[in-house]
Fold:
Amino acid sequence: MKFFEDIAIGERVELGHWHVTAEATVAFARRYDPQGFHLEETEAAKTHFGRLSASGWQTAAMWMKHMIAHRDRVQAEMRARGEPVADMGPSPGFTDMRWLKPVFPGDRITYFTTATEARPSQSRPRWGLIRHLNEGVNQTGDLVFSFIGNVFVERRDA
Amino acid sequence: MKFFEDIAIGERVELGHWHVTAEATVAFARRYDPQGFHLEETEAAKTHFGRLSASGWQTAAMWMKHMIAHRDRVQAEMRARGEPVADMGPSPGFTDMRWLKPVFPGDRITYFTTATEARPSQSRPRWGLIRHLNEGVNQTGDLVFSFIGNVFVERRDA
Structure:
């Protein structure tokens, strides 16, 4: 993780792509979200989705996977350059989580994160609070998923 | 699903329990949230969690699982009584998602939902919008997870 002071506000960072498959869609749905339109093509055809679609919680969990993979890549690069790496603290919570369009098998979802605000913590001087807008965009450019996150990030002088 | 008109505002409904295991914690983390404190007891011991803890996204996805199981039970009872069952529409989004305490293997998380507001949709007369507070509480009574959801529910006279 970059240190609080080094995070560029307003820079939209690409985290990676999720290539959605029917197998992964159904496997997640069986375990966590067993609704017809996430489980079976024929059931899904009868609903407002029209075809098999991924659980919104899978789209959210996949954002996390890509965020962590991105963070690990950035940290590996920093360590390779001999730079210190910042700690990431807990998150005080997320808000405005929206599933704007269905996500279908065959889709390619690209995840982005944009730090929108940086605020030093008054009560916890080791940490700063970063507010970030997170997005999932499909292969035709439609925004399918977004939320606003908050996370504590270690300060350089901590 | 009950019809919009039949949902009792303010009634806290228990959805079920999640018995958290180390195996399920690690399996979810490997797939969606591969951070040390979700993957390995020894890594977790070095962090602010102190021990292996579940991904917040697993706590969220498990809420969904218990919500759907509850809905399916209610619908089965309604059908057994010969009553019509309402459609649940899409969700315009969730907000104020908070992970208030860590969730550890061995914990028993009880999920609740409370409808807090019912508003007929002006633009979509078939539907009403239900706002609901959702909670996860551990075996010692600590609130570990909460968020506010919104969902369209079919109206009885639609």
Remarks:
- The radius of gyration of chain A is 18 Å.
- Chain A touches chain B at residues 31-35, 48, 55-58, 60-62, 64-65, 68, 89-99 (CB under 8 Å).
- Chain A is about 30% helix and 30% strand.
